[in-house]
């Protein structure tokens, strides 16, 4: 088992591509985008399906090396430009080291 | 980077609001609700889209301070009143301390 | 609070049952399947809703004891036979020890 970082970013759906583009540029080997039904944050409650979908959030999940995770953190200004609601990072282990 | 707790609660969709209301009252600054396609637990297999949707589960995700997480744990009786399938808590770090 | 492992597996939707069957056989008391909107991995970008749905991924989430998690790791060959994109494991604590 190999130690990695699990990066989880909650962001508006319309800004998700800015986040995944950033992950790509920083060397992440992959990412996964999950739908969100509803959420509450600093801007109040959001629910999926609002007219225009402009309020929809998604979760961007990325398993990466500590080095990539450090780059994501160092790119804080650019990342926060996508106005994510949450950026959290958790230690994990992965089955195949060659994939990350 | 700032240490926080990632609280993840799998609960019936019809009871999710009891969980998010509890998180609100305990001082959580936000939460995110994710859809679930299917699950197996103590009550057998559940699939989204069952007639009436009564069997649908969701995942409630909340990033909070250790203090808030302790309150959630201390409110165990009330939390379990919503009959969550799973309540798990993971250590994480967040990018912006002022948001949690 | 009781220490457990949070196993998260990103896998093609059509192969998810092979993963959950394996978790069942290895003694996991439950699992949850979440939908995925899009992802990038070794095989390029995938988006939900492709014709036939053959490209759809899902996330299989399983909270289990360290013993069960070890069995999952030991069953690596069988697990990887389902060609998961990602298998990651995180330490967590759970509210009710009797459920896992």
Automatic annotation (TrEMBL), chains A, B, C:
Gene3D superfamilies, per database record: 3.30.70.120
InterPro entries according to UniProt: N-reg_PII (IPR002187), N-reg_PII-like_a/b (IPR011322), N-reg_PII/ATP_PRibTrfase_C (IPR015867)
SUPFAM superfamilies registered for this protein in UniProt: GlnB-like
Listed Pfam families: P-II
Protein name (database record): Nitrogen regulatory protein P-II
Organism phylogeny: Bacteria, Pseudomonadati, Pseudomonadota, Alphaproteobacteria, Acetobacterales
């Amino acid at each position: 088992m190999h130690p990695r970082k699990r990066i989880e970013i909650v962001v508006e759906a319309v800004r998700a591509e800015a986040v995944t583009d950033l992950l790509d540029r920083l060397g992440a080997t992959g990412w996964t985008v999950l739908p969100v039904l509803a959420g509450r944050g600093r801007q109040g409650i959001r629910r999926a399906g609002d007219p225009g979908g402009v309020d929809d959030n998604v979760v961007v999940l990325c398993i990466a090396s500590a080095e990539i995770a450090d780059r994501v953190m160092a790119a804080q200004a650019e990342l926060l430009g996508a106005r994510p609601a949450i950026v959290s990072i958790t230690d994990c282990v992965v089955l195949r080291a060659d994939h990350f």
